[in-house]
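Quick entry between incubations.
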Amino acid sequence: MPEYRHGTAAIRALVRDDAVHRDVYINPELFDLEMERLWRSAWTYIGHDSQVPNAGDFYTVNIARQPLLMLRGTDGAVRVLLNRCAHKGSKILGANSGNCGKLLRCSYHGWTYTLDGSLRTVPVKSGYADTRFSESEAASGLTPVANVAVYRGFVFARLNPSGASFEEYFGDCLSSIDNLADRSPVGRLEVAGAPLRYMHNSNWKMFVENLNDTMHPMVAHESSAGTARELWKDRPPDAPIPMVIEQFLPFVSNYEFFDKMGVKIYDNGHSYTGVNFSIHSSYSAIPEYAAQMEAAYGAERAQAILGESRHNTVYYPSLTVKGAIQTIRVVRPLAVDRTLIESFTLRLVGAPPALLERSAVYNRVINAPTSVVGHDDLYCYRAIQEGLASNGNEWVNLQRNYSDREKEGGLLGTHNGTSEVSMRGQFRAWVAAMTAGGAGA
Amino acid sequence: MIQAVGDDKTLIEFVYHEARLIDEKRFDEWYDLYAEDARYWMPLMRGQPEGAGHTSLFDEDKLLLKIRIERLRNPKSYSQAQPSWCQHILQAPSIEGRDAARGIAVLRTPFMYLEYQQDQQEVYAGVAWHHLKRGAENILIALKKIELLNCEAALPSLQLFP
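Done. Structure below.
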């Protein structure tokens, strides 16, 4: 087995223009390097600012093996800090979320910090007299993550001190977040309650790739969506269609449908399917909502916002967004074969309750650990995870609609929807991040 | 008032019977225990309020239950290539109340639920609430609400019916 930490040649050899070596999914050393290089150089999704509406509200996450906390300060700003007491390293907040009051206080020796992370008090401070304490790392308080961006309420951070700016990293792909937020008549979103948390015993990249894989639904989801179609087909045509049926049926659309949907590729591994239309395009209208949107934006602009029906947008590597149904899925890699997927339901502030109900139903039926759609997806990821142990063929084929034009700028832009070009784009970003700066050479 | 739904013993036996039908995969008989407007609900949050404003782990009407049952029989249900099996272990149900006006009896049943597939066995626990009513011939389930102990936790695929 090659050794990947030193030098870049072994990593470069894993990614061809139209295929990747199996080690990217199953090699634990590569997973370690992904956490150190790719995930710390990327702008990763932390959380939504609506999860911390008031001063002292916090939300804790772990990104690239870093315990982090997102915290609303007394100045109203949202900060991301390392969740580590400056003294002996204890996590300063142990709960998943809550309100810490006006100060953060360590559970061990009672050091306290203001909400911007500055060290406020140390018990019996006289013990540090004449110790040059002010020169210590501890005196600086909680370490902030320097590079944080809040975009339409979405909080991102880049853990590496240097690298691409937020705008450079995501570019025009941010239009999917814009479209999602614009669907609120007041342009604001709120996280609605707890996320569905689904533990995947598979590599994180299988999930991310699958979000723009449009050749699997009619196969993997025939048993669920196909059963829904069978149970519904004998109903009278004028019978009101239940929301779940409306959501299930497009999953078993034919290949032509998914091909014409289109996929758009951006730099740095980002992409979205549903350029022209998507599985979310034909939901029943909610007239009260349409009227609200027209009143808020004017007819033309409202039509432009609601006319977009993007399927899945991948904000590589940590976030996927479904604007048309107001759900997001957050990718938290835990080990080479273990990934937590958290699916949040979003409320369009100011919109009728029917919109939230539709999102809540979709999230449950499609993304929950109890979802018959999710079961078959995870089965496929797990089957890959185990199947890749096979010797004899060590390559994963990503050749569908490949063209040599992709080498000279042809990768970016819009392609036919069933192309595997989004995966090729992801691995181009992957190899660049994994070999940046000679990477330990 | 007891006659409105059934005597204590009948109601308690009904709850045991419902779990047994799931464990033995007698899904058609199980499906028939549910009233036409029944709800099979497993909230995502402790103390989750009623209503559509929050998503859930299960929130099935009879149509969704039917889709699940038929899917389990579909040879293209790949996640069931190696079938799952489950086992309910129930504490004795207690009768928590009777609503004579609505003809509803409410039972509370602490449970353990085990789900097994291909060398993996998952253990769940919680409290099941049955709202039972009298149908034309049988007792029917109006609502089964399952409060899972670890409802907020990261869960693996949960494929059958707690």
